[in-house]
Queue: 2 jobs
Job 1
Amino acid sequence: MIFKQLFDQKSSTYTYLIASAKGREALIIDPVIENVNQYVQLLKDLNLNLVKVIDTHIHADHVTGASKLKDITKCTTIMGDHSPANTVEIKVKDGEYINLDTLKIRAMYTPGHTSDSYSFLMDNYLFSGDTLLINGTGRTDFQNGNAKDAYDSIFNNLLKLPEETFLYPAHDYKGEKVSTIGKEKKQNPRLQVSSVDEYIEIMNNLDLKKPAKLETNVARNINLGR
């Protein structure tokens, strides 16, 4: 297997490239439109064929590069079945598998940050989108976000995975690259709550600034970046 973690400085977004070393088929998770040329060059350097691109949800802080990658590589666009993006080619359901040569990636419906948020599990690699972050969790105050749903997604779904599962989020703002489910259980301050009500209270009082181009980004991302 080939695995690359790429970082966009402007939006603090992590993009992931996964490929089968055997068949040279590749998949990209959460691409950023400004970095598409970088991804294409990396694919060429590694002699890979991009066949699928996944967005974990409709992002608000950057524009996806999904459509631009499709135009260049003819790859298939994928999102979860709760996505409002009507132009996405394949919408996967909770528990459904995405195949990449011999690799299998399981879709996990994890709403809360947004109502269409999905996480994706490949072996012991969890790509959690904005649902579960390193030492944090995704905000729940816009795009049909819901703190109760987020609690359920995190505590009754993601944290049920083996503790050695590697956590790869869609964002990090402090230079962290990877964690584990076990480490987050013990150290993530958002997870040290005794009830769903306590979690909801925390999330409803974060008082975070909204992304500068929220409406524009969301509108473009519903059209996969066009």
Job 2
Amino acid sequence: MYRMKKNRTLPKGRVPSIMMFLAKLLGIVLGLYVLLGLYIYVFQYRLLYLPRTYTLELAQSTALENGLILWPTQDSSYLGLLSDPPTRPLLGTVLFFHGNAGSAMDRTYFSDTLNRLGFRVILVEYPAYGAKSGALGEASLAASGIQAVTQAHAEFGDPLYLVAESLGCGVACAVARDTRDVLQGMLLITPWDTLPDMAQQKYPLFPTRWLTKDQYHSIDNLKDFERPLGIVMAAQDTIIRNERTTHLIGHLTQDPHVWTLPDVGHNDWFSAVDGQWWQEVMAYVTNVETLEPRT
């Protein structure tokens, strides 16, 4: 006959011990979760804004070395860096809004490219970036951008265009909401739909959408923009994923012209375009049949 095996049970004292251990472990995990969520909320500006700063004297000297001047003032209240090519007549003024890292001084390749096509270029600087005074945040950046557009229109007249990349697209869209009447066209390179949706996709384990202070709601900000609008996507973009851009495109009241750059990502897309591409893009944005580089 086979003997039946007795059911093995844990000693009475061990069951509460295991439960207490699991409860403590759960408490630690929840505590870490809350702490990480709190870190994202408290330090979100450190995650979003990565400014390069320097003294006013260095800004002035470096600008001159690159054929630029601080504009419209030479103090810390300047709004951007002006690149005014000698070739005349000009096709208009482009205000360029850069991404979240570095400063306007790091984007001279944009002013060089657009100067060659016959545009005056203002590399817009954000508060707390470069040598510019002010505070970080959507309200501050948008207000400074609106001031730059208003000043440029008063000083240089029509036509005015906005070109922006990455975070700058969010800023430019916020600016365009209040200045669209003086703008003739806009080009957005790797834009998103809303910052809360972007943040939620980047940190899906947290209720990031509800923790985001700045909104940069480009869908709402562009709903009444009826001038030529170009949008550029980098097919391999892992920072601002294409679905964020296509979601924006799908909710616009107008159909923008979309260029998709294959085999490049968020930070190397510029290497995939040439002068002919810029001629095509800016011809659309400016509603000009053809653009030729100036000598």
